[in-house]
């Protein structure tokens, strides 16, 4: 029997049991302010005593009965439940998912929060804290060695990406061929774009607002979710498995213990981004006053096996959750890319707009189009308050598959610019779709509700660096990667302004 099919049935069964459960649901309460704060350390810096303790905790979790809420596979299935559409929601035919919208960061934060507390409970250590995989710093750009052993190992990983291979945080199913030093340099430049210049507004970083009802559905991931998050999922997953299981497909991702260190770093970068943009209140902007976000809720079993309802508003303050991250340096802050061509060259290049047509353009080859800028002569005050955003809209992926494409602005010497990749200032961002790996389950008569994806890239700083901030139009190049665009269409490209 196919293992994935079996897992799908288990997930559906578990969810139906949860939905019909007679368990009492309680509202989440913050831990006591007197509780000692847990400190999450970089995985490459933890000592042997910590590794032994962590290994024992996961081993005990694996040995729990399969129907126990704290069982390791049961924990992994929670991720599958919330992100694959593996069961039918009551009163809705929409796909339940916590990826590709503003739920991505808070859901994963509280998921690993409970996972961490359960591990501590299993070994009787209230101070236990998960490590984070510090893949955005050169010292951490390798799979931490202790994840290769005992209960922390996973046999379904790419054999060519095991230590000491340097991670490719912008992986596109094709090996980069870069030397370790060059790969580190590329990673740092990519992080600058994803954390700084491409993510100056909450929606660009956190993801689109997803609201109740068919009209409120959205599919617009933030920068970090697209990559390194998605890209590293696929980089770690096994090339020998049909969907790069375990980490490379959402249904199986949390079966690999490194999932939790990966997401701990994602969670840490959320706090770093907030600090870079003026603190939590400033960075959250309108999101922090939006009840559709703040009052949305999820269900988990806590460390005491109680069924708990957690709202997004409960997930926003780490100090109240009694954990923090050890301070580390952020070398990508000094890795701002440079133009690969003289900015003036772009103004002398003949451009034309392509017709995307009523059904969009298939990404089976590189697309190049001129895009008009509606407001090329904004005032200084306007430029301070609003971000210019390049929008690739109507991204339609025809089947459950991995898709990646990169976007460049004013790449007039295309071959040279693409060779530099994220280290070229012309690089605006990337789109990455990870396989769900589980067939959607629908009742007879349910409508086939499908939302096309939207990619929004902040380009104000990029345009200034390319001396194109007063140009009437820009040249946009969309480059499909790894042959993944053959089943993907795009409806068009436009410019918007985001306050």
Automatic annotation (TrEMBL):
Keywords: Copper, Disulfide bond, Metal-binding, Oxidoreductase, Signal, Thioether bond
SUPFAM superfamilies: Di-copper centre-containing domain (SSF48056)
MF terms in GO: catechol oxidase activity; metal ion binding
InterPro entries: Di-copper_centre_dom_sf, Polyphenol_oxidase_C, Polyphenol_oxidase_cen, Tyrosinase/Hemocyanin, Tyrosinase_Cu-bd
All residue ranges annotated as the Tyrosinase copper-binding domain in the record: 256-267
Keyword Disulfide bond belongs to the record: yes
Cofactor section: Cu(2+)
Record bears the keyword Magnesium: no
PANTHER family referenced in this protein's UniProt entry, alphabetically: AUREUSIDIN SYNTHASE-LIKE (PTHR11474:SF128), TYROSINASE FAMILY MEMBER (PTHR11474)
Family to which the UniProt record says this protein belongs: Belongs to the tyrosinase family.
Name of the protein in its database record: Aureusidin synthase
The encoding gene: AS1
């Amino acid at each position: 029997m196919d293992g994935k099919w079996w897992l799908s049935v288990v997930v559906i069964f578990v969810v139906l049991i949860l939905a019909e459960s007679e368990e009492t649901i309680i509202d989440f309460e913050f831990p006591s302010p007197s509780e000692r704060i847990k400190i999450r350390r970089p995985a490459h810096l933890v000592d042997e005593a910590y590794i032994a303790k962590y290994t024992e905790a996961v081993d005990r979790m694996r040995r729990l009965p399969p129907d126990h809420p704290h069982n390791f596979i049961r924990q992994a299935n929670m991720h599958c439940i919330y992100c694959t559409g593996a069961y039918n929601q009551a009163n809705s035919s929409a796909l339940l998912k916590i990826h590709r919208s503003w739920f991505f960061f808070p859901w994963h934060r509280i998921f690993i929060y409970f996972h961490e507390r359960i591990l501590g409970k299993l070994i009787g250590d209230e101070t236990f804290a998960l490590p984070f995989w510090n893949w955005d710093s050169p010292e951490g750009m390798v799979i931490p060695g202790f994840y290769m052993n005992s209960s922390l190992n996973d046999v379904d990983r790419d054999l060519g990406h095991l230590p000491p291979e340097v991670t490719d945080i912008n992986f596109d199913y094709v090996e980069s061929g870069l030397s370790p030093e060059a790969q580190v340099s590329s990673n740092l430049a990519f992080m600058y774009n994803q954390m700084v210049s491409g993510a100056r507004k909450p929606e660009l970083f956190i993801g689109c607002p997803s609201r109740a009802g068919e009209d409120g559905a959205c599919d617009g991931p933030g920068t970090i979710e697209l990559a390194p998050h998605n890209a590293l999922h696929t980089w770690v997953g096994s090339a020998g498995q049909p969907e790069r299981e375990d980490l490379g497909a959402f249904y199986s991702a949390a079966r690999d213990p490194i999932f939790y260190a990966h997401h701990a770093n994602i969670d840490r970068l959320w706090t770093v981004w907030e600090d870079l943009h003026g603190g939590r209140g400033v960075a959250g902007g309108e999101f922090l006053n939006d009840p559709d976000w703040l009052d949305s809720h999820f269900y988990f079993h806590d460390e005491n096996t109680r069924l708990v309802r957690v709202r997004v508003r409960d997930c926003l303050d780490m100090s109240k959750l009694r954990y923090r991250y050890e301070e580390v340096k952020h070398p990508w802050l000094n890795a701002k890319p440079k133009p690969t061509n003289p900015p003036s060259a772009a103004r002398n290049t003949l451009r034309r707009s392509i017709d995307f047509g009523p059904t969009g353009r298939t990404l089976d080859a590189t697309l190049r189009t001129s895009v008009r800028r509606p407001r090329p002569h904004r005032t200084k005050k306007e430029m301070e308050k609003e971000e210019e955003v390049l929008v690739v809209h109507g991204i339609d992926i025809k089947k459950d598959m991995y898709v990646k494409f990169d976007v460049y602005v004013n790449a007039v010497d295309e071959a040279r610019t693409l060779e530099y990749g994220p280290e070229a200032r012309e690089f605006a961002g990337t789109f990455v779709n990870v396989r769900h790996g589980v067939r959607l389950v629908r009742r007879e008569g349910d409508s086939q509700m499908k939302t096309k994806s939207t990619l929004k890239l902040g380009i104000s700083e990029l345009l200034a660096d390319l001396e194109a901030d007063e140009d009437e139009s820009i040249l946009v190049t969309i480059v499909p990667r790894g042959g993944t665009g053959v089943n993907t269409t795009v409806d068009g490209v436009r410019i918007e302004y985001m306050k």
